[in-house]
Design goal:
single chain, alpha+beta, three-stranded antiparallel sheet, two-stranded antiparallel sheet, 7 strands, globular, binds zinc ion
């Protein structure tokens, strides 16, 4: 795993792209900025707060390799969750209400997990 040097929660002064869901982080939105060091290289990892939260809730960090969780695995994990929980046998696809971009899915999953508990 990369070593996390620091984690901050700034407000976006310009648009960023979330490295987990690939959707944009809007100006004025609070987001997560992690500064990591890996193999002597310092790198910033920028995500939505919700994307980071859902990654923890779905325990995505448990089975990732030593490079940490990347956007591709994040999106695969989300898709797997939706397929497992919101699959419609009649249309042989996930329910249309779940055919969203990954940021919207992340927020919806979080809401669902919170209602369950
Ligand atoms: Zn995101």
């Amino acid at each position: 795993m990369p070593t996390i040097l620091r984690e901050t929660y700034p407000t976006a002064k310009k648009e960023h792209r979330c490295e987990f869901c690939c959707e944009k982080i809007a100006i004025g939105q609070k987001y997560v900025r992690q500064t990591n060091v890996y193999d002597g290289t310092i790198d910033d990892f920028v995500t939505h707060q919700e994307c980071k939260e859902v990654a923890h809730e779905l325990r995505m960090y448990d089975d990732c390799d030593d490079l940490g969780l990347d956007g591709e695995s994040f999106r695969e994990n989300l898709n797997a969750y939706v397929y497992a929980n919101h699959y419609d046998e009649h249309t042989d696809d996930v329910y249309t209400s779940w055919q969203l971009n990954h940021y919207e899915i992340a927020k919806k999953v979080l809401k669902e997990l919170k209602t369950e508990n």
